[in-house]
Every structure is written in structure tokens, then in C-alpha cells.
Amino acid sequence: MKEFEIKAQVRACQWDELSPEQQRLIAVAKEQTERSYCPYSHFHVGAAAELGNGTVVRGCNQENAAFPSGLCAERTALFAAGAEYPDEPVKRLAIACFHEGAFLPNAGSPCGACRQVMVETEKRGKEPMEVLLYGTNETLIFRSAADLLPLVFDSI
Length: 156
Description:
Blueprint: E1 10-13, H1 20-32, E2 43-51, E3 56-60, H2 73-84, E4 90-99, E5 102-103, H3 112-125, E6 130-133, E7 139-142
Parallel strand pairs: 4-6
Antiparallel strand pairs: 1-7, 2-3, 2-4, 4-5, 6-7
Helix pairs in contact: 2-3
């Protein structure tokens, strides 16, 4: 038997420790929570993807009564970026969650499907994609989407 350890690099930062670029992108993700359509879960998620050319593409969760026909905020932003700017890498992705009248104190975590899409988006762009998970207590920063899904499913 062989045993090995899987590690992920993550930083936990206070708001004033974030760069102005990170703060601006998180602000866009927070704004996007207001546009989410979530009449069933009432869990508002916003995402903002900063591309290599500086363009910011926005996304928010979209629920549907015919579950699971809805889509997460992360994927709406990344798929829109891929459709509109197929040759631009995603440099940074910010995610914010709002529930019961407030942003979450601890960072919300992307679902497995979103993590898979994030890693493949990063692979397609041929450079690491920084991931910012906003919480009012602290923001978690992953240097690469691969740190969120170390055993990613990959094509053969």
C-alpha cells in the first residue's frame, strides 16, 4: 500500500489585507447576489471573473422549479466568459454568498461541479486562476482553482 498527502495552499485575509483589485472584484461579486434568482433556497450567490484583458464577467445563481435545471453563479460567470472571450484566460474569480439578510461570515464553498468547471477553465487558460471566497470574517484566497479540487476528473 502507498500513502500520500494532498495539500492545498490557501490564505485567510481580512478585508484590509486584500489588494485593491481583489476588493473591486469581490465588490462586483457581492453586487451580483442582488441579481440572483433563488426563490427556492433563498441563498444568493454572486460571482465575478476577471479576465486576462481586464474585462470583468459577472454571474449569479439561477434556480428553476425543474430542479436541477438551475445553475450556480460560478458557472454562469465562467461559461459567459468562455462564450464571449474564448481566448482570454480567467485571471481571478470572486464568489460571495448572501443569506437571511447578510453576507456569510465564513466563506461559502463552491460545489463539486463548479470546482470541476473552475479547474478546466484554468487549464484552458493555461495559467493559474486565483479564487477569492468572500466572508465578512475573512476571505479565503486560493492561488489556483486546482487547490480546490486536487483529484480533478480529467479527459484521457
